[in-house]
Amino acid sequence: KMCAKNTKPFTVFVEGNIGSGKTTFLEHFRRFEDITLLTEPVEEWRNLNGWNLLDLMYKDPPKWAMTFQSYVSLTMLDMHRRPTDTPVKLMERSIFSARYCFVEHMMRNGTLHPAQFAVLDEWFRFINHNIPIAADLIVYLKTSPSIVHERIKKRARSEEQCVPLTYIEELHKLHEDWLINRVHAECPAPVLVLDADLDLSQITEEYKKSEHQILRKAVDVVMS
Ligand SMILES: Cc1cc2cn([C@H]3C[C@H](O)[C@@H](CO)O3)c(=O)nc2[nH]1
Asked: What digits encode the pLDDT tens for the residues 15-35?
């Protein structure tokens, strides 16, 4: 039973591969005043005191992956702990996708030195064990690597133009391990899987499916 004054908002992580439509999905909820939207702070990663850490990372991963992922985790932690006065909070990605998808991949392919990985993992464990950031629901925008690779090229975010299909395929597998095969016990939230291969015209039906589940939960939180 949660009393109204310190109720933790119903927290939803929106997860998915690069180009899976997360920002578009979040914008669909812009019209609900009961929902706080926290989109991925990419602009902060592209300009920290004039440094484009995202570009540096893509241009020289072994040199900049640690710096970039360290800052990503700080900005995600800031979003996790940001107080909201609405019953529902939708976040684009999380420190869980940071650790289980991006950092995991960079460790496995040798971009991160094992000592660098160990430091990032200790930060993740400390945050996860000491700060209440758990999700109540994860919406997984499930995509096919070939489709999102095409979207990335069309979207033409300059830093991503050299991202190879193999990178997208590996990130896809890590999302599937986490959200479908549930290999990580630290993030037990239920997962709502949406078919995000659908193009914009068809995907509204998929969004409606999640809207019902998210808003119904929000009512539960508010009424509880
Ligand atoms: C949590 C988290 C998000 C995230 C995004 N990225 C990259 C993938 C995309 O090219 C861009 C925006 O999502 O940043 C990353 O390398 N590591 C990340 N970690």
From this structure: 999 999 999 899 988 988 989
Query: Rounded distance, CA 5 to CA 1, Å?
Result: 12
101 Cβ neighbours under 8 A, 6+ residues apart? 171, 174, 175, 178
Which of 13, 20, 23, 40 best tests ligand 1's pocket when mutated (most atoms within 8 Å of CB)? 40
Nearest CA to ligand 1 atom 19: 98
ipTM entry: 0.93
pTM of the model: 0.93
Residues in Cβ contact with 123 at an 8 Å cutoff, skipping those fewer than 6 apart: 70, 73
Per-residue pLDDT tens for 133-179?
Answer: 999 999 999 999 999 999 999 987 889 899 999 999 999 999 999 99
Give how far the C-alpha of residue 103 lies from the chain's centroid of Cα atoms, to the nearest Å.
13
